[in-house]
């Protein structure tokens, strides 16, 4: 995948999300939305694995260019839009949504509005984008649709499940993986220790993919 400087590099969370996507089985003719697409790796995979219509969204202009280039190189008709989470597709609905939002807890209050850190920094609890995503999921999903969202267990797995269930979705953990810290988490290890989110000397996290289903039957 082409990755210009400043665009989030696909890592263990991307791989785990793609595994969950593969196992979920894309419905024939599905409309797929990939949020926080980065290089477009998951959107490209969805198009290769049978989705008829794929839309990818990212707030970063560089990420949008990268995702468009990676889709074009494979001659895949992926629509790539720039914007904040699902704002560019307001009013649209999808059969399958994938999301790898920022989830790294950072002591700074508001997430950054510019720069590479937008791809990971998510406020003191790591939930600044996760909570918005949970709130918007029902309006984005077609009846019978599914959302897959990956994040660190440090952000609160049960909190995500409860937020989705409170909005009428069926929610469960679809995948888990223990992952050594990458460069971003290593750089913030002392901060995470001070906040009590990890033990002293801990240099790994558990990644989870949460699956949320809108259980009304299609059609």
Structure, described:
It is a single chain. With 219 residues, this protein is of the alpha/beta class. Helices cover 30% and strands 25% of the residues. Strand 1, helix 2 (41-48) and strand 2 (53-58) form a beta-alpha-beta unit. Helix 1 (12-24) packs parallel to helix 2 (41-48). It is globular, with a radius of gyration of 16 Å. The model has no long low-confidence stretch (mean pLDDT 93).
Key words describing this protein structure:
alpha/beta; 7-stranded mixed sheet; 7 strands
Question: What is the fold's blueprint, element by element?
Answer:
Blueprint: H1 12-24, E1 31-35, H2 41-48, E2 53-58, H3 61-73, E3 78-82, E4 94-99, H4 130-140, E5 141-152, H5 157-165, E6 170-180, H6 183-187, H7 189-194, E7 204-213
Parallel strand pairs: 1-2, 1-4, 2-3, 4-5
Antiparallel strand pairs: 5-7, 6-7
Distance linking N and C termini: 37 Å
Into which percentage range does the β-strand content fall?
Answer: 25-35%
Strand order across the biggest sheet? Answer: 3-2-1-4-5-7-6
H-E string:
HEHEHEEHEHEHHE
Number of strands: 7
Radius of gyration: 16 Å
